[in-house]
Amino acid sequence: MHRSFEAPCSSVSSESIQDTDQEMQIVEELHAARVGKSVDLPGELMNMEIDLEDDVHSSSGIPSNNTSDRKLLIVIDTNILMNHLKFVRILKTTEVPGFDKLVLIIPWVVMQELDRMKEGKLLKHAQHKAIPAVHFINESLRNQDRKLWGQSIQLASQKHYGLSDENNDDRVLKCCLQHQELFPCSFVILCTDDRNLRNKGLISGVKSLSKEELSAELLHLSLNTDVCHQPCIPKQQLKAETTPLKESYEEESINSGLAILLESIVSDLEKSLGTGLSSILETEMKIAFGNLWMEILYLKPPWTLLHLLQCFKKHWLAVFGLVMEKNLLLTIESLYKNLCKANKAVDFTTVKFLLQDSRSLLHAFSTRSNYDGILPQTFAQVNKLLQTFAEVKTKLKPNSSENTVTKKQEGTSLMKSHNQEITVFSSSHLPQPSRHQEIWSILENVWITIYQNSTDVFQRLGSNSALTTSNIASFEEAFIYLQKLMAAVRDILEGIQRILAPNSNYQDVETLYNFLIKYEVNKNVRFTAQELYDCVSQTEYREKLTIGCHQLVEMEYTMQQCNASVYMEAKNRGWCEDMLNYRI
């Protein structure tokens, strides 16, 4: 059944789904509430009950840790816990060069504000963000986590420098100043997205950074372990003598830097992909159900990216299954699974799959509509994140235990041509895991090349060219290239499916290997069919190959649709019959 397609103007996406706007709304409304005293507490601080279920606190006054230790104490404001809880979780596990420990400080007044929002007494629309923040603090305090301290009510009740307890900004600032006095050998940073509070902190001598600024500085510190060049730490705060850091500590710091960078990528992906998918969901639901769409909708806005993916899964058969290839549902499920995984612990492989699946999903929907111009913007943002992700390896220092040859060959792509430098070395010189990574990177680059070329073809052959200007000059050239791409995808799929078949053996790798030889894909990094077989026999790479197979099936279907849509025009133009024999 074919439905006529007109993309109605998206309203939910512009009002409720812009995560950045929601974050700023929380910051601004919380600031306004503080200024307007609508979050002021009746009577003394003692009279406010904080619902942390049990009165389990890391300290009743001054924390018991040695005050001579060099700690990095980061005071977390309410808006950071509300909008960037995932970042805060990663921050708590971060190792920073030049410091004995990183500790998060939660001011008493922040816990009070979260409690009021959790109960729906303040910023009711943000209640869903306050609840997980309260649970995070409670869990850390219950477990007596030494990397998170709560400011005690005793400290919060003390007068300090004449700061007024009538203003919650001043209460947060007082917490910073108190910890500067209590821990003179440590360094205190206030993390808040409230610009005015940052101004107050800077005036008062407290280093004050937004989430993005703090993330950038910590990443810089983690990737540049020379403590003499720490940008957020004054020179007088550093030790008189600088000793080289141990390799294990450098590795911890690099891992911390990687986690911070990956969290930032996932956070940006959630915002950009959420915007794109919300537009798709609303548009397709309106087409399917008209004015009743909001009543039928599985989960009502405001949506998180996880909510959107749940809606796509729930409504797939009735809404999307009629207009999109059913195998695309596998991409939705993969996205959902990996996003849940990333919310618990972010890692390199998970983020890579998230980005690749996001691009595949957007690419598939781009053949249907540009969705009021939102999809091209989202597509460009995801591509930018993929570029950032590709640069991660060059920013992070390689493991010092790795062979020098491995360092040279890491990140080699299909487009590079350092033939002499790379082929001089025998594969026997390379550690086996690194050899497998090298081979897999070649397969990844095949996918990227096909994807990029197919995007150019679709843009030239499509009725709208909203994404970008195609690099292909003519319609005829694009049509010819489409036939070649379809043939290549068929060959690759045949090779992969033979490898993934039950009881596959060495001979089953030959189809894929012959394709790579035919197109000189591995001319930069030489490997044998046996090495390819050894690589794809590993569980890790077999799982990746399965996901790649699903993505190629989706790509093939999209190509078939595109080919069918332009077939009659190609035939009317009198192009040779040989070319049309590619048609499926």
TrEMBL record:
Pfam families: PIN_4. Belongs to the SWT1 family. This is Transcriptional protein SWT1. Residues 72-199 form the PIN domain. It comes from Cercocebus atys. One of its GO terms (cellular component) is nucleus. The lineage of its organism: Eukaryota, Metazoa, Chordata, Craniata, Vertebrata. InterPro entries: PIN-like_dom_sf (IPR029060), PIN_dom (IPR002716), SWT1_Regulator (IPR052626). Gene3D superfamilies: 5'-nuclease (3.40.50.1010). CDD domains: PIN_Swt1-like (cd18727).
